[in-house]
Write a structure and sequence with these properties.
The protein is α+β, with helices and mostly antiparallel strands. It folds into 2 domains: about 1-200, Ribosomal Protein S5, domain 2 (2-Layer Sandwich); about 205-380, Alpha-Beta Plaits, CATH 3.30.70. The chain has 11 helices and 12 strands. It has helices at about 5-20, 95-105, 130-145, 155-170, 175-180, 220-240, 255-260, 265-290, 295-310, 315-325, 355-370; strands spanning about 25-35, 45-60, 65-70, 75-80, 115-120, 185-190, 195-200, 210-215, 330-340, 345-350, 375-380, 385. The strands form 2 sheets. Strands 1, 2, 3, 4, 5, 6, 7 and 12 form an 8-stranded mixed sheet that branches. A hairpin with a 4-residue loop joins strand 6 and strand 7. Helix 2 crosses helix 4, helix 3 (about 130-145) crosses helix 5 and helix 4 (about 155-170) packs antiparallel against helix 5 (about 175-180). The two termini are about 20 Å apart. Bound molecules: adenosine-5'-diphosphate and magnesium ion (MG). Adenosine-5'-diphosphate binds near residues 73, 121 and 132.
Length: about 400
């Protein structure tokens, strides 16, 4: 469904449900992670992009302290009081992203009136495109406008992250929210997760992405936690070995890794090589993009995937298969797993002329191997969240 028709359907349903027009509407897109994997919690760098589908949130004042919230695709309503905002872990769990964001937004503000709210989107849920962050960011922008609360992008991203942590129970980083807010058409977002400063980098018009959704992404939380622990252990080791300050793997170069990894457990050393290498690939990637070197940028995406596959071991058979197949297709510059790993999606950088044929080739190859096609969508880096 196109964004325009999602917007129209939402307005129609809003009027039907609440008997009035909304007084504020906001939109926020999903995101793809393009380069820089597991670097956010190592205070490193990530290239991401906002995508061309997203979620709309419409709201009006409720006239009392009551809040009424409707997920428009389900037409299911949740009612709660402004002074008693609590997550519900059992029913309509979509409410938690909205409630958590609302609670964070109004903290420290004297808000006396509730809202009538409704949202609708076209991002496939749970497929690694971050529908949850899109929901948080459109909620945040819409309600900030409704209540006249001024909020800057990074604090709003942190409100969304807190909603994930405390209301939805997902310990995510800030990448999803920042990408949804900061994206620009035809641009990648390059974020420094130490300073939380981000910039957009032009990709030109000769590229788009394919997202190939393989097996259901399960952030096998035990595996994820083990990777984080290995990165922390490695950072502590390098902090002892190196003369300059090291608090995170961000502070260690690949050259230092090669010399000073002695004494580290081999698996831990391999784990550490991944985010360190990823940081260097993001910085190198920025230089290559500046020169218009798409083949060089794509090579870094392949390098990133093989680093995931062999060093960090956060890939899986299906992801490896798609990346290996993508390498054979003309017009494909690069491919890698996108997001946490252990399943989920492969992101492919491709010339738009070849996007359709590449999509069909990948879906068919996947079907021949696994019996079911993988879902492939063509994605163009797009504008980030905004009010309407
Ligand atoms: P992802 O963020 O990768 O899509 P998550 O599991 O983090 O996956 O978030 C998906 C959840 O977000 C859904 O299960 C649902 O609760 C909520 N959600 C996000 N967008 C919508 C929407 N438009 N309608 C209903 N629920 C939504
Ligand atoms: Mg999510």
């Amino acid at each position: 469904m196109q964004n325009e028709s999602v917007y129209r359907e939402l307005l129609e349903k809003f009027v039907k449900q609440f008997g009035r027009e909304p007084s504020a509407v906001a939109y926020a897109p999903g995101r793809i992670e393009v380069l820089g994997n597991h670097t956010d919690y190592n205070e490193g760098f990530v290239f991401s992009a906002a995508i061309d589908c997203g979620t709309f949130f419409a709201a009006a004042p409720s006239g009392s302290s009551e809040c009424r919230l409707v997920a428009a695709d389900l037409m299911h309503e949740v009612v709660f009081d402004l002074h008693d905002i609590r997550p519900d872990k059992e029913n309509d769990t979509w409410q938690n992203y909205v409630k958590g964001t609302f609670a964070g937004l109004i903290e420290g503000h004297d808000v006396k009136e509730g809202f009538l709210g409704m949202f609708l989107g076209n991002i496939p849920l749970g497929s690694g495109l971050s529908s949850s962050a899109a929901l948080e960011m459109c909620t945040g922008l819409c309600l900030a406008k409704l209540y006249g609360i001024a909020v800057e992008p990074v604090p709003l991203a942190k409100i969304g992250q807190k909603a994930e942590h405390e209301y939805a129970g997902c310990k995510c980083g800030l990448l999803d929210q920042i990408s949804s807010l900061a994206g620009k058409a035809g641009m990648l977002v390059k974020t420094d997760f130490r300073s939380l400063v981000y910039e957009t980098v032009n990709m030109g018009n000769d590229v788009c992405f394919l997202m190939c959704n393989t097996v259901k992404h399960e952030l096998v939380s035990g595996e994820y936690d083990q990777r984080r622990a290995a990165c922390e252990a490695a950072a502590a080791h390098f902090a002892k070995e190196l003369r300059h300050p090291v608090t995170h793997l961000r502070d260690v170069s690949m050259a230092e890794w090669a010399i000073y990894k002695r004494g580290l457990d081999e698996t831990v050393a391999n784990r550490a090589a991944h985010p360190i290498g990823e940081d260097e690939r993001v910085l190198l990637g920025a230089e290559r993009l500046k020169r218009g070197d798409l083949a060089g940028f794509g090579q870094l995406m392949f390098d990133s995937h093989y680093s995931s596959r062999y060093l960090f071991e956060n890939s899986c058979e299906e992801l490896d298969f798609v990346v290996d197949e993508a390498r054979k297709i003309p017009g494909v510059y690069g491919a890698r797993l996108s997001g946490g790993g252990f399943g989920g999606s492969v992101v492919v950088l491709v010339n738009p002329r070849d996007a359709e044929t590449a999509s069909v080739a990948l879906a068919n190859a996947y079907k021949a191997k696994y019996g079911t096609p993988c879902n492939v969508s063509v994605i163009h880096p797009s504008d980030g969240a905004h009010t309407l």
